[in-house]
């Protein structure tokens, strides 16, 4: 799947509806050229290597990061050390909410899954722009509303679906959003480890390994070194009540 295609989607998360992640424009897209220049003028470009954190849970907020390219994982770490992935975000989105203007502590961590180019927008300067331009303020509100819907959908899935249903739903979501058709097979364009999938659905890596092996034995999927191929999408869909 090309980078251009990835930029048309918001990210990867646990959600009941695929439509939730299809329609979000980039943060700068709704802005006039003049407002776009004003936002870019307060920014500072940074490059983050794979595995490097933008911040960690509990760090003091001081602004947001607009993702220009790459992939960022946001996750929550429990006191036990267990992690729950909230989402993977791509170019056009931002990380750093809900306190856009740089107050309080970060509620979760954000780390680069691949080399990423970011634009840092300092909170106080961003607040100033929001006060000056209704268009910029509305764009920020729309982006926050989108993230609130995403996290609400994730909470609903975690609270109302069994872990088996969550895995099935995630595979359907990934096939619809990031899959490419090859004959009767759907190849997911982004590799995922068992741990990645487990963190997204609130399960253990060992449990996911067992379930994927069972699905493979039944001819529903094929899994090899992070590459998932959906062989029978209908079988996945029929098993979700």
UniProtKB/TrEMBL annotation:
The keyword Transcription applies. Residues 161-234 form the HTH crp-type domain. It comes from Bradyrhizobium diversitatis. Keywords: DNA-binding, Transcription, Transcription regulation. PROSITE patterns: CNMP_BINDING_3, HTH_CRP_2. This is Crp/Fnr family transcriptional regulator. Residues 27-147 form the Cyclic nucleotide-binding domain. It comes from the Bacteria.
């Amino acid at each position: 799947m090309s980078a251009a295609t990835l930029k048309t989607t918001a990210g990867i998360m646990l959600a009941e509806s695929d439509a939730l992640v299809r329609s979000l424009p980039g943060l700068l897209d709704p802005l006039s050229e003049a407002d776009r220049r004003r936002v870019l003028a307060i920014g500072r470009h940074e490059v983050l290597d794979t595995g490097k954190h933008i911040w960690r849970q509990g760090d003091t907020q001081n602004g947001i990061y607009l993702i220009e390219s790459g992939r960022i994982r946001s996750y929550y770490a429990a006191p036990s050390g267990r992690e729950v992935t909230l989402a993977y975000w791509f170019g056009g989105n931002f990380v750093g909410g809900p306190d856009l203007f740089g107050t309080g502590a970060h509620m979760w961590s954000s780390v680069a899954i691949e080399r990423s180019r970011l634009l840092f927008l300092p909170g106080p300067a961003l607040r100033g722009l929001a006060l000056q331009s209704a268009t910029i303020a509305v764009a920020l509100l729309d982006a926050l509303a989108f993230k609130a819907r995403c996290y609400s959908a994730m909470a609903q899935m975690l609270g109302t679906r069994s872990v088996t249903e969550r895995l099935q739903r995630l595979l359907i979501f990934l096939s619809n959003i990031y899959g490419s058709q090859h004959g009767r097979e759907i190849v997911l364009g982004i590799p995922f480890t068992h741990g990645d999938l487990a963190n997204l659905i609130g399960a253990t890596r060992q449990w996911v390994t067992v379930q994927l092996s069972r699905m493979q034995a039944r001819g529903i999927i094929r899994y090899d070194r992070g590459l998932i191929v959906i062989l029978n999408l209908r079988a996945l869909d029929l098993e979700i009540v």
